[in-house]
């Protein structure tokens, strides 16, 4: 095994075992972890583990009265 990760409910790394020389950007729930921004990208949306929230509003979560 090259790497193993344990996460808290919000995607923060709670523990890890990584072999020397191994880099793995694919982490929590299959998202791509950008080490320069600390964001985990899932398709077109990114999750900020520092603030435990998404950086964009979900496209399907529009307000029905406002966006009608």
Automatic annotation (TrEMBL):
Species this chain originates from: Dictyobacter alpinus
Name this protein carries in UniProt: RHS repeat-associated core domain-containing protein
């Amino acid at each position: 095994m090259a790497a193993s990760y344990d996460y808290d409910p919000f995607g923060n790394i709670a523990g890890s075992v990584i072999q020397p020389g191994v880099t793995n950007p694919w982490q929590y729930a299959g998202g791509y972890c950008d080490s320069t921004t600390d964001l985990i990208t899932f398709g077109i949306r990114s999750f900020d583990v520092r603030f435990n929230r998404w950086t964009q509003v979900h496209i399907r979560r529009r307000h029905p009265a406002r966006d009608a």
